[in-house]
Design brief:
Elements (H helix, E strand, L loop, with lengths): L1 E8 L3 H12 L4 E4 L4 H6 L5 E3 H9 L4 H6 L1 E3 L1 E6 L2 E6 H5 L4 E3 L2 H15 L3 E2 L2 E7 L7 E6 L2 E12 L7 H4 L5 E16 L9 E3 L6 E5 L5 E8 L9 H12 L12 E15 L2 E2 L2 E3 L5 E2 L7 H22 L3 H28 L7 H16 L1 H12 L5
Parallel strand pairs: 1-2, 1-11, 2-8, 5-13, 11-18
Antiparallel strand pairs: 3-7, 4-7, 5-6, 9-10, 10-11, 12-15, 12-16, 13-14, 14-15, 16-19, 17-18
Helix pairs in contact: 1-6, 1-9, 9-10, 11-12
The structure holds flavin-adenine dinucleotide.
Amino acid sequence: MMRTTVGIVGGGPAGLLLARLLRRSGIDCVVLESRDRAYVEQRQRAGILEQGAADILRECGAGERMDREGLVHDGIELRFARRSHRIDFPSLTGGRRVMVYAQTEVVKDLIRLHLEDGTPLLFEATATAITGIDADRPVIHFVHEGREKTLTCEYVVGCDGFHGITREAIRGAITTYEHVYPYSWLGILADVPPSCDELIYAHSERGFALHSMRGRTVSRLYLQVPNGSGVDEWPDDRIWDELDARFAIDGDWKLERGPITSKAVLPMRSFVTEPMRHRRVFLAGDAAHIVPPTGAKGLNLALGDVAVLARAFIYLHTTGSSELLDAYSDTRLRRVWRAEHFSYFMTTTLHLGPEQTPFQTRLQLAQLERIVTSRAAAAELAENYTGLPLY
Ligand SMILES: Cc1cc2nc3c(=O)[nH]c(=O)nc-3n(C[C@H](O)[C@H](O)[C@H](O)COP(=O)(O)OP(=O)(O)OC[C@H]3O[C@@H](n4cnc5c(N)ncnc54)[C@H](O)[C@@H]3O)c2cc1C
């Protein structure tokens, strides 16, 4: 039987950053992570940090390697109708940029700091239930080293992702909103330097494609594919040919090919839980909300949630007031719904639905044309992409 102030379920980016912020302010916490360290550190996911998210990592001492190895990006490229257009972030947002630094690296940096500091971070510790939610001391039941154990907490924070148990534990007290998209992404990693300096978002008559990167020597590329597609249907040559066709423009540009080291199909979903708290149980990150990755918002929302939540716990710890904790759900839901709208907008503007009519395609092209010819429309995209303030 263990006790702590804040019991954190899940050691992904949200749980690890929350623990870092709390420990630095002297607030006791324990992180339970169901997977082993190697698995968590290798799990391929997001790669774009908004400026505010990068600042939070710096402020908590986890930004040193990011600043050395991450790539600062000042814009993105939009491709449509075989033409290429650049959206320049700093000039449209008063100087804001994004950082290309993989989620795997954020997670490695935070885990290393926790192990150096002696944070109770238990790998292969699977939370199975939360009891006492309506009492003053909720209890997390978990299995670790083959034994059933309990962690008695003053507060529980579910950072256990979309398939975690915390949201389920407060199911009766929350409402969920969901939209499932009629297409998926096939994502690959390839050992080849990126063929571009900045991300390329391509609308084409064959569907959407995205060229991203995980550093100077590794490319990350995505293709829109029908729901239900399997990686077996996509041998390497077919992937490169399709990427070539979707990125094609009038003029010189070449997509460099290289060995593909990873392939996965990702379904696309929007999902929001309201409220993000029930009594002493809080939800943060993917446990509370999901966005399709087109707007690069999932990781940033997760880091933003726990930055706001940590500040509320620190305020409670130093002043005795629960005012900020009580405001957590409303504060974050305003940002979450903004990010949901932006991610939906980017997704539905750039992808072709299976039932899409030529009329709808012309509307998409009209919208894209507006973004690249109107400073106001471009600024709206740039402000959302680089991230809005936390509060
Ligand atoms: C396949 C995939 C690809 C993605 N690609 C992109 C992308 O390209 N761009 C982008 O912006 N976003 C992307 N995202 C979204 C982004 O990665 C997430 O928003 C981000 O990981 C959220 O962090 P989190 O800490 O809230 O949740 P997670 O990263 O899901 O972490 C949750 C943690 O909880 C642990 N856990 C779960 N259940 C239990 C339990 N019962 N007990 C203990 N531990 C538990 C899990 O093992 C995991 O480590 C992707 C997501 C997925 C799933």
